[in-house]
Specification:
Blueprint (H helix, E strand, L loop, with lengths): L1 H22 L5 E9 L7 E7 L10 E6 L4 E10 L1 E10 L18 E3 L12 H4 L1 E3 L3 E6 L5
Parallel strand pairs: 1-8
Antiparallel strand pairs: 1-4, 2-3, 2-5, 5-6, 5-7
Length: 147
């Protein structure tokens, strides 16, 4: 009986050690640089959101709000785990934290998405703007302005 208890104890401790060390293994993270192209002016700020599929257009995984340095600029997200993400950008000219729209619902401020989908009525689907992060990478977002 003592041998059985000793064997069980060794197996239990070995399994517990393996589970503990596995749960503390560092997660590989990456840098995602977002290059914005075609900002029409330096008024206000840009809101650059990195989101997962579940948070697309709702909850950001990370959000950067920064003053505009010129027609083209770059913002970096650090410590991003491997996965699928979208990038959405608003040129918030009046800094009210939303994409303003005109009377017909057409955006009156600039916006953009990863993969630069062709503008259409309503926002794109996550599948159209998703990028797979599995290494350090750079994403180009071309800004869209109506009127």
């Amino acid at each position: 009986m003592k041998i059985l208890n000793k064997t069980f104890s060794i197996l239990f401790l070995g399994t517990a050690f393996t589970l503990l060390t596995a749960s503390f293994s560092p997660v590989q993270t990456y840098s995602v640089k977002v290059r914005l192209e075609g900002l029409k002016n330096t008024d206000g700020s840009v809101r650059i959101a990195l989101a997962t599929k579940d948070g697309f257009l709702k909850t950001n995984y990370q959000l950067k709000v920064t003053k505009i340095s010129g027609e083209d600029m770059e913002v970096e997200f650090k410590d991003i785990p491997e996965g699928e993400y979208s990038v959405s950008v608003i040129h918030d000219e009046n800094e009210d934290n939303v994409l303003n729209r005109g009377m017909k619902g057409i955006p009156s401020e600039g916006y953009g998405f990863s993969n630069n989908p062709k503008p259409k009525a309503g926002p794109p689907a996550f599948e159209d703007v998703k990028v797979e992060v599995k290494s350090n990478q750079s994403i180009l977002v071309k800004m869209v302005y109506w009127g």
